[in-house]
C-alpha cells in the first residue's frame, strides 16, 4: 500500500514555487463558502483562509467562486486556517490608487460620509481622508456671521452624500493622512473664467453668506464680496436687511483680485445723492434727523439720500462742547447749510442761532 503524502512533503515537492505565507502579505484566492459568521477562501497550495464575521459585510456582493484579494493577519489558527483581512487588502490597494492620483494631479469625485466643524470626512477606495473647510469651493464654503459653529456644521451636514469634485492635496500612508481639496480641483476652470471678466462688468450670482461687513456671492464658481458700503446708496447697518442666503443678485465688478471679485450692488443704479443735493445751497434753513453722534460732531439726514455733518466747531461753546449733550439720536432739529461740495459728496451744517440758544442755556 502506497504511503500517504504529507502536506510538508507536497510543499517540499513544489520547491521554490510555493513560499510560506507571511503576516501582512497580500494574497489572492477564491471564495469557497459564505457562512453567517465567516467566509472561507481557497488559497490553493496555501490551504484555506478565513475571513471573520466583522468583515463579512465588507464585500456586499460576494459570491462563491469570486476571486478576492486579502491580506494575511495570522498564518496559524487552531483549525489550520490562515486568518485573512479583505478590508486591509482593499485599503492597501486604495493607498496605491490614492498615491497615483495625487502624483498625476487627477481630478476625482467623492461623496462625504460625515462632517464636523473643521470639514468633511471622505472615503476613497477604502482609504478615509478629510476635506477641510478651507479647501471648499466658493459654492460650498459655509460663510456665516460671526463664529456660529453650529450654523457652520449645519451647512457642512448638507454636503453629506453630495458628489464633490476634488484633487488630492496631501497623502501619507505611514501617518494614515489623506487630505482633499475642492478648490484645487476647480482652479484651472476658475482661471479661464477670470480671464473673461473685466472691471465694470455686470454679473449675476447667488448669495452664499451674509456677515457684518458685507455679502459673499458665488459668481459661476468665483467668490465675490459686496462690502457693506457697496450694498446701497443709503446707510446700511445690517446687510441681512437687504439680502438673504440663496438670493440671486446682480452686481458690478469694481475690482478683480487674485481669487476673488469685489462687487457693488449700488453702482448698478444712479446715486440719488447727486440729484437730491441740488435742492440745497449755502444759507438755506433745513430740518433734519440726527442719525449719528461722534466726538467731532453729528450726522444729520436732511433728505432721503443726503446726510450732512454738523461739525463740533459749529455747535457753539468752544472746543470743549460735547455733541452727545446737545443731540439725541433720531431727534429732529433745524440747521443752516454752510457749504455744499457736490464733487466730494459733502454738505456742512450749522445750528441756527435759535437752536444754539436753546441748546447752550
- Summed up, the domain count is 4
Assign the CATH superfamily of the largest domain. Answer: Nucleic acid-binding proteins
- Compute the number of helices: 7
Main sheet strand line-up: 1-2-3-5-4
Structural class: alpha+beta
Mean pLDDT: 85
Order of SSEs, N→C? HEEEEEHEEEEHEEHEEEEEHEEEHEEH
CA radius of gyration is: 36 Å
Model regions low in confidence, pLDDT < 50 over at least 5 residues: 354-361
Number of strands: 21
Which fold name fills CATH's third level, the topology of the largest domain?
A: OB fold (Dihydrolipoamide Acetyltransferase, E2P)
Overall shape: it is rod-shaped
Distance between the termini: 134 Å
- What is the share of helical residues? 10-25%
Report the β-strand fraction as a percent range.
35-45%
The CATH C-level name of the largest domain is Mainly Beta
Please tell me the CATH architecture of the largest domain by its name.
Answer: Beta Barrel
The largest β sheet comes out as: 5 strands, mixed, barrel
Oligomeric grouping of the chains: single chain
Structural summary, described in words:
Helices cover 19% and strands 37% of the residues. It folds into four domains: 23-88, Beta Barrel (OB fold (Dihydrolipoamide Acetyltransferase, E2P)), CATH 2.40.50.140; 105-186, Beta Barrel (OB fold (Dihydrolipoamide Acetyltransferase, E2P)); 198-268, OB fold (Dihydrolipoamide Acetyltransferase, E2P) (Beta Barrel); 273-360, OB fold (Dihydrolipoamide Acetyltransferase, E2P) (Beta Barrel). The chain has a five-stranded mixed β-barrel. It has a five-stranded mixed β-barrel with strand order 12-13-14-16-15. It is built from seven helices and 21 strands. It has helices at 7-14, 86-104, 149-157, 182-195, 272-276, 323-326, 353-360; strands spanning 26-34, 38-42, 48-52, 67-74, 82-85, 108-110, 114-116, 119-124, 127-132, 164-172, 177-181, 202-211, 214-219, 222-227, 248-256, 260-264, 285-294, 297-301, 307-311, 332-341, 346-351. The longest helix has 19 residues, at 86-104.
Amino acid at each position: 500500500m502506497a504511503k500517504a503524502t504529507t502536506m510538508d512533503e507536497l510543499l517540499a515537492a513544489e520547491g521554490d514555487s510555493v513560499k510560506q505565507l507571511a503576516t501582512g502579505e497580500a494574497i489572492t484566492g477564491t471564495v469557497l463558502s459564505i457562512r453567517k459568521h465567516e467566509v472561507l477562501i481557497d488559497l490553493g497550495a496555501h490551504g484555506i483562509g478565513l475571513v471573520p464575521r466583522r468583515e463579512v459585510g465588507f464585500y456586499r456582493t460576494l459570491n462563491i467562486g469570486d476571486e478576492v484579494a486579502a491580506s494575511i493577519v495570522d498564518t496559524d489558527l487552531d483549525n489550520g486556517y490562515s486568518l485573512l483581512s479583505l478590508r486591509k487588502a482593499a485599503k492597501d490597494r486604495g493607498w496605491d490608487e490614492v498615491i497615483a492620483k495625487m502624483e498625476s494631479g487627477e481630478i476625482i469625485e467623492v461623496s462625504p460620509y460625515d462632517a464636523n466643524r473643521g470639514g468633511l470626512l471622505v472615503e476613497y477606495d477604502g482609504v478615509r481622508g478629510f476635506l477641510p473647510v478651507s479647501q471648499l469651493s466658493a459654492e460650498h464654503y459655509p460663510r456665516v456671521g460671526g463664529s456660529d459653529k453650529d450654523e457652520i456644521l449645519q451647512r457642512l451636514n448638507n454636503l453629506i452624500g453630495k458628489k464633490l469634485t476634488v484633487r488630492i492635496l496631501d497623502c501619507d500612508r505611514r501617518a494614515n493622512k489623506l487630505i482633499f481639496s475642492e478648490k484645487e480641483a476647480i482652479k484651472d476652470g476658475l482661471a479661464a473664467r477670470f480671464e473673461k471678466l473685466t472691471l465694470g462688468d455686470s454679473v449675476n450670482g447667488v448669495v452664499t453668506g451674509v456677515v457684518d461687513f458685507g455679502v459673499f456671492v458665488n459668481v459661476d464658481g468665483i467668490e465675490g464680496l459686496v462690502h457693506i458700503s457697496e450694498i446701497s446708496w443709503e446707510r446700511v447697518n445690517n446687510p441681512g436687511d437687504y439680502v438673504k442666503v440663496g438670493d440671486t443678485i446682480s452686481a458690478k465688478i469694481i475690482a478683480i483680485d487674485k481669487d476673488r471679485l469685489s462687487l457693488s450692488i449700488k453702482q448698478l443704479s444712479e446715486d440719488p445723492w447727486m440729484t437730491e443735493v441740488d435742492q440745497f445751497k449755502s444759507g438755506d434753513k433745513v430740518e433734519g434727523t440726527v442719525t449719528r453722534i461722534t466726538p467731532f460732531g453729528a450726522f444729520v439726514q436732511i433728505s432721503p439720500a443726503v446726510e450732512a455733518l454738523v461739525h463740533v466747531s459749529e455747535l457753539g461753546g468752544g472746543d470743549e462742547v460735547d455733541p452727545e449733550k446737545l443731540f439725541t439720536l433720531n431727534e429732529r432739529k433745524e440747521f443752516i447749510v454752510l457749504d455744499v461740495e457736490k464733487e466730494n459728496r459733502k454738505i456742512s451744517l450749522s445750528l441756527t442761532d435759535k437752536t444754539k440758544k436753546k441748546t447752550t442755556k
